[in-house]
Amino acid sequence: MSYEMIALLMFSSMMMSMLTGQRVFAAIGFVGVVAAAVLWGNGGFELGFSAGMKLMKWYPLLTLPLFIFMGYMLSESGIAEDLYKAFHVWMGGLPGGLAVGTIGLMVVISAMNGLSVAGMAIGATIALPELLKRGYDKIMVSGVIQAGSSLGILVPPSVVLVLYGMIARQPVGKLWIAGVFPGLLLAFLFVVYIVIRCKINPSLGPALPKEERNMPLVEKLKLLRAGILPFVIFFLMMGLFVMGVTSLVESSAVGALSALAAAAIKGRLNWAMWNRVLEQTLGISCMFMWIILAALCFGAVFDGLGAVKAIEHLLVDELGMSPWQILIMMQISYLIMGTFLDDTAMLVIVAPLYIPLVGKLGFDLIWYGVLYTITCQVAYMTPPFGYNLFLMRAMAPPEITLVDIYRSIVPFVAIMLVGLAIIMAFPEIATWLPAHVYVKG
Amino acid sequence: QDKKITWRLQTYAGAALAEEVVRPCVNAFNKAANGEMEIELYTADQLVPTGELFRAMQAGTIDAVQSDDDSMNSPVDIKVFGGYFPFASRFSLDVPTLFYQYGLDKIWEEAYDEVGVKWLSAGAWDPCNFSTNKPIKSLEDLKGLRVFTFPTAGKFLTQFGVVPVTIPFEDVPVAMQTGEIDAIAWSGITEMKTSGWEEVTKYFLTNNISGGWCGSFFANGDRWKEVPEHLQQLWRVCMDSSHYRRLHWYWGGEASLRAGGSSLELTTIPAEEWKTVEEKAYAFWDEIAAQSERNAKVVKILKDYQAVMEKAGSPYR
Amino acid sequence: MPDAIKTYVHVVDAFNRRVGRIVMYGIFVMMGILLYSSISKTMFLPAHWTLEMAQFVMAGYYLLGGAYSLQLDSHVRMDLIYGRWSPRTKAAVDAVTIMMLFVYLFFLLYGGISSTAYALQYTETSYSSWSPYMAPVKIVMVIGIALTFLQATSIFFKDLAVAMGRPLA
Ligand code: NA
Ligand code: NA
Predict the structure, then answer these.
(1) Residue C150 lies in a domain
(2) Dihedral sign of CA atoms B17, B21, B24, B29 in order
């Protein structure tokens, strides 16, 4: 059998195994170890564990559990409630204003954390009940929270961009900075969408009654103090890293510590919360790490089969596609795979196949990192498989059904695709800032 | 006709560097073997992490390795001499001379036979210099630097306040930018350019801690025995051609890049001051010699060789 | 289900829960090491062991925590089809497809034991200037994988019980 056939067989067996509904890491790992054993005999028996040693040496992964801890700590710290109250009073008067405020909240949370976990947790526990209570349309708000939280990986800091940077060998600091404007652009597009829809149909997001937000301007301004702690956390983590005081993994530890300190300052630390945060951190860290462990084994076999060369051969020589055609095809294939595949696994298995080719075709790998991240966001959100969907289902109140959740993401995915197209057409949105701001990282 | 033999050979060099230091000889071998045997080349950490290279080869996960003994973490006493044993060589030609005229080859063969791996052939690469983001002009400047370097070289350098860090080869440029490391003490200037590390550093220290990297080709003992004699011979010729190509590739590269072909700014620690590093190295040699009888034998050979070179004078020393 | 299996499931679950509840504090160990690293870097000479030590702790954290994470059902599944089934059908299918998990864990365990045996036989040290002994971390990794394997067997029995319509409490 040719190597291409084996690679194809491996990929399709992985998809089939996942369709059974067994845990994703088990499906990927199973195909990986069996393929290694079949192809390489005795010598391949140890490839699964060898991936464990590889994972251990992949130092940026240390940021993962620390960011997860930080996310859960932030969501319990009370910072978000204060922020939300400020957005509430300042934006509540607009039709759909609370939903707009939720997007604002998500941008601030995204600037404090590298994953979408924090945004999801905060959105589902703090924003969602409030929005439903005010008579907001449940489908729209479910979409708002998922789309908003997905900004966590685009607005710096971002774990996805860290892993991308390691695979593409691009400076993480520049990648992070590159995500600023695209992140704000997406947030802006979300807001425009919400405002327009609520203008047309005010019942989707009724404005708050005057008495609820009627307070003296001084009081209103005082509410803005809610932004101080997030700013301090952002600075401790991002500022110190960009200035070169802390290294990347150290800055994630600083971030985790500062979230802990914030919770302590707000008087939120107690035994029950402590246990909840630590347990969730362990559970979600294990989920990611075991998927990466399995995907590294799968990826090593895949790599051993020369999949990179095969793809390059297919796209460049056989199909004779132009660089832009290849790039667009890659994005489309990512989007399709992303609906079915876990994006962490996709990062470890597929990104190493594509990224070298993107570089060879002469595209800017910082810019591509942003495009890549947005496709990851879409992958998160699109059924049947999406991590945000998974979290949303676990956290949303029963009145929001699975169908509601699926329907809710449609307009937001469409907006993200528009954003993706805009950034493809105008790369400066991503590349201007890193070219003009000096970052050490 | 027997079944075609396929070998997985993993080099410790990264993808870009591997194109220069090992790909040509593998391609030549595959062509000359005419379908009887094929060597598939994998680069740093591709199939197994570099620190696991030895064990993976012993277990048969891979069939052959190109690396220095130190980097592949060989479970043999003499592994410390692989890579950059401080001041063991001044020029790259010293390495093959030590192996094939002063008898290191016999010692290596014996050591690896004990652990089920076939040592095949040793050769030299480039010298070991520091590349940094701040200029190094005195030993004082080395203090506190987190440096990506070889394990044994790193141990030696700690006495000058250097903090050695080991990470996967391909992660070096990003680690330089994320602040996990401050400097690289891994190679000469040719590799800095080829591996793309030139873009993440500014300065190149011309003083080196060793004039020639010392590393080898190895194979799993059983796999080697399965290769028919004529193909064994062919692979030996190809390994030699690889050593030869590297000799002139590095020798010419170092000179032309220092002479203005590189964006790195050259700095130098005065020879008098650098002499103290060299003296410390000889004390380090004695420490290593005390570790085992075999190590003592190697150190004696190094000293004998050193004496001959001193006596011969210019251009040798 | 026979009593012996009930006891087995109970013991495995209780033990792994205990281990998980301890291991979850590992996040503070990682945090502490990295904070020490950044403080030592600014105040005095940086330490050469911090990054590697944090990596060892990370390996222990997610592997020793593996069993408890299975117990908490933290692992994502693709539930395109799976999500529509009744709990009983889910359990029945899981009881079959969990074989994939067993096979994967078996190979992990095999490689782990072999690698640990090697580390002990040759007193392997890490490929770094700090060069700590590798056996301790490998032993921890193997224990983590083994506990995860035991947890998988416990889950298998529980799924089987649900599939047969007699769930274990
Ligand atoms: Na973020
Ligand atoms: Na998806």
Answers:
(1) yes
(2) negative
Residues B312, B204: Cα–Cα separation, whole Å = 30
pLDDT one-digit tens code per residue, B53-106: 999 999 899 999 999 999 999 999 999 999 999 999 999 999 999 999 999 999
Residues spanned by the domain of C28: 3-163
Domain count within chain C:
1
Q: Indicate the average pLDDT of chain A.
A: 87
Whether the ipTM is more than 0.85: the answer is yes
On the 0-12 / 13-18 / 19+ scale of CB atoms within 10 A, B35 is exposed
Considering every ligand atom shown, identify the ligand nearest to the alpha carbon of residue A114 and give its number.
1
- Ligand 2 centroid vs C131 CA: distance in angstroms? 42
Ligand 2 midpoint to CA A440 (Å): 34
User: What pLDDT digit, counting tens, does each position of A169-189 carry?
Assistant: 888 888 999 999 999 999 999
Q: How many CB atoms lie within 10 A of CB B47?
A: 24
Q: Is C121 inside a domain boundary? A: yes
Q: Specify the pTM.
A: 0.91
CA distance A439 to B198: 18
Measured between alpha carbons, how far is B226 from B188 in angstroms, rounded to an integer? 38
Residues of C with CB under 8 A from a CB of B: 41, 45-48, 51-52, 114-115, 118, 122-131
Q: What is the pLDDT of residues B185-201, one digit of tens each?
A: 999 999 999 998 998 89
Tell me how far apart the alpha carbons of residues A357 and A308 are, in angstroms, rounded to a whole number. 8
> What pLDDT digit, counting tens, does each position of B245-255 carry?
999 999 999 99
Assigned domain for C53 exists: yes
User: Given the DSSP bridges, would you call strands B163-165 and B203-208 parallel, antiparallel or unpaired?
Assistant: unpaired
Query: How far is Cα A122 from Cα B161, in angstroms, rounded to an integer?
Result: 46
Contact (Cβ atoms closer than 8 angstroms) between residue A47 and residue A32: yes
Q: Is residue C151 part of a domain?
A: yes
Within 8 A by CB and 6+ apart from B229, the residues are none
